[in-house]
């Protein structure tokens, strides 16, 4: 990750609280949640085995979407 992106991410982190302590940022990408871009600007489809357990999961029309705050930029 280049320095510009790292600074942008750190600025976002400073303005949020995360129940997962920002593990997506602190760990390697293979430890991130499974999700798929479905062409929506502010949501991705959650592909986790138990999406209902995530506080950022939103169920709509038979699909779990991720509403993680950083997606809403």
- Sheet with most strands: 4 strands, antiparallel
The largest sheet has its strands arranged as 1-2-4-3
Looking at the structure, what is the overall shape? globular
Work out the helix count. 2
Order of helices and strands, N to C?
HHEEEE
Secondary structural class: alpha+beta
Strand content: 15-25%
How far apart the termini lie comes to 19 Å
The number of distinct β-strands equals: 4
Helical residue percent band? 10-25%
Supply Rg: 13 Å
| Mean pLDDT over the residues | 77
Give start-end ranges of low-pLDDT stretches.
none
Tell me what the structure shows.
- The chain has 73 residues and is of the alpha+beta class.
- Helix content is 22%, strand content 18%.
- It contains two helices and four strands; from the N terminus they run H-H-E-E-E-E.
- It has helices at 3-14, 23-26; strands spanning 35-36, 44-46, 57-60, 63-66.
- Strand 3 and strand 4 (63-66) form a beta hairpin.
- It is globular, with a radius of gyration of 13 Å.
């Amino acid at each position: 990750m280049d320095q510009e992106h790292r600074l942008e991410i750190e600025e976002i982190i400073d303005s949020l609280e995360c129940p997962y302590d920002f593990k997506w940022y602190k760990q390697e990408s293979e430890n991130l949640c499974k999700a798929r871009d479905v062409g929506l600007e502010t949501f991705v489809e959650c592909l986790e085995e138990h999406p209902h357990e995530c506080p950022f999961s939103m169920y709509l029309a038979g699909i779990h979407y991720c509403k993680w705050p950083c997606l809403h930029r």
